[in-house]
Design goal:
Jelly Rolls; alpha+beta; eleven-stranded mixed beta sheet; copper ion binding; 3 domains; 458 residues; five-stranded antiparallel beta sheet
């Protein structure tokens, strides 16, 4: 996993200019306290606070002024703030996203104008009220589960290890929050957390409590509790929603390790923190994971024809291809007539640049459109992945009905003009892009949508 982005300090000349006498700003010139500090509070100080998780603080005028040109550059390039689900002409999500960090084009222009004007301070009386950044992690931790023993991945090769975790539940429980805590972020590529109601992992894990599990967790019956990838934050639900975990169930955590070539990774012991409901909630949440179709289905859905096909439909991103698109479709079929969509998340690897998830209604009602975009990530960044939860009361969440279709459109850039892929090629010691197929390894690709859905608790 990659480190948080590091701001580069301006040149000595810029720092010296920043210390020169400051001209009084005109009425139309943006100032720190009136115009810039509110933007930093909204979109930056969650990480860039004093003693925050980011390498530099933007909590004071002095620190923000020193980095004003860098702030303007990073926001214009959409590298900061880390929020991939930007508004586009082709996607208007059905509800706003909770905790939306993105900056509008006008706000980004304001940051540039402030930097170009010499980053004036303005009147402290114009400053917004101080804010307290939300603490990282769960609001309350009831259980913290750790592997029986750390695991050291082999040097330079991808590996998939499943760790058997026993929460010791003597009766059914309802998870209302989870946080995956990687032990060695330099090698943990992603993690999936499964519910093992039949305790099959016990035999698979043996005395070590872990086992190899390339592809899937090797369980005959399971459900997805949650996932972690770089940038993912702790996941918490409101009091009236929970994820069911049966009595005596185990949890199996599948971790994908990706050590750098030539480096012997230190052992990892990734942990899981859980918050449990005090009583049975009125609604249950289930996780739908759709995508990674290797071929068309018999009904014509699954992987759709694409520009990289060679005679038959295949997932193939040719070397040197920019703007390459793969599409997949899934018809929803479940026993409950209608459920609510809590949010949406997406997953790709280094060649990915944009993923759009659409809902196609089988039977639109009232003012419902035939097609509704649920999320689009035109600023996709592998290092900053998250679930985008809709900011609406449960009864006002968008709905999904049996017979509706979910369509994924995944766009890739398999050239060295793609900085993420170029960096990965260097890391893998490859001289040029290769054809990319569907797979688990970092230089394979994926096309996945995660839809947490809410339904009445039986």
């Amino acid at each position: 996993m990659r480190l948080l982005i590091h701001f580069v300090l301006p040149s000595a000349t810029a720092l010296l200019l920043g210390c020169s006498a400051e001209a009084a700003p005109g009425a139309s010139t943006p100032t720190f306290h009136r115009d810039i500090e509110p933007l930093l509070q909204k979109s930056c100080l969650g990480c860039h606070a004093q003693d925050g998780t980011a390498p530099v603080s933007l909590a004071s005028y002095e620190s923000a002024k020193a980095l004003a040109p860098v702030i303007a550059d990073e926001t214009e390039a959409r590298r900061m703030p880390p929020w991939g689900a930007l508004p586009t002409d082709e996607c208007a999500p059905p509800r706003p996203f909770r905790g939306d960090l993105h900056l509008s084009l006008d706000e980004i222009a304001l940051l540039r104008a402030w930097s170009d004007a010499g980053a004036p301070k303005g009147d402290p009386a114009d400053a917004p009220a101080p804010t307290t950044p939300v603490a990282a992690g769960l609001s309350r931790t009831d259980l913290e589960l750790s592997p029986r023993a750390p695991f050291a991945a082999a040097e330079g090769s991808d590996s998939f290890r499943c760790f058997v975790l026993d929460p010791g539940l003597t009766e059914q429980a309802w998870v209302q929050g989870y946080d995956v805590l990687p032990g060695n972020r330099a090698v943990v590529h992603h993690a999936l957390l499964f519910i093992d109601a039949n305790r099959e992992g016990e035999a698979l894990g043996g005395e070590s409590g872990s086992y190899e599990c390339f592809g899937d967790a090797r369980l005959s019956e399971t459900s997805l509790l949650g996932a972690w990838a770089p940038g993912t934050q702790a996941f918490e639900l409101p009091p009236d929603i929970g994820i069911s975990v049966p009595a005596n169930a185990l949890l199996v955590m599948q971790v994908h390790y990706h050590p750098k070539p030539g480096e012997a990774p230190s052992p990892d012991a990734t942990r899981v923190a859980l918050r449990l409901a005090d009583e049975k909630p009125s609604r249950a949440l289930s996780n739908l994971a759709l995508g990674n179709a290797e071929a068309p289905f018999r009904d014509g859905n699954g992987l759709l024809p694409g520009p990289g096909d060679r005679g038959s439909v295949e997932f193939r991103i040719p070397a040197g291809a920019r703007g390459h698109v793969e599409r997949m479709r899934y018809v929803i079929d479940f026993p409950i007539p209608e459920i609510s969509i809590y949010g949406a998340g997406v997953h790709m690897h280094r060649a990915g640049v944009d993923l759009k998830v659409d809902q196609i209604r089988a039977d639109p009602r009232g003012d419902e459109a035939d097609r509704q975009c649920l999320v689009q990530t035109p600023a996709w960044d592998y290092n900053w992945q998250r679930l985008y939860s809709y900011d609406a009361p449960i009864d006002e969440l968008p709905t999904l009905r049996s017979g509706d279709t979910i369509e994924l459109r995944c766009t890739y850039d398999n050239t060295t003009e793609n900085p993420a892929l170029a960096a990965q090629l260097i890391e893998e010691r490859l001289p040029a892009p290769q054809d990319i197929g569907l797979g688990e390894s970092t230089l394979d690709e994926m096309c996945v949508a995660f839809l947490p859905v809410v339904h009445p608790n039986p």
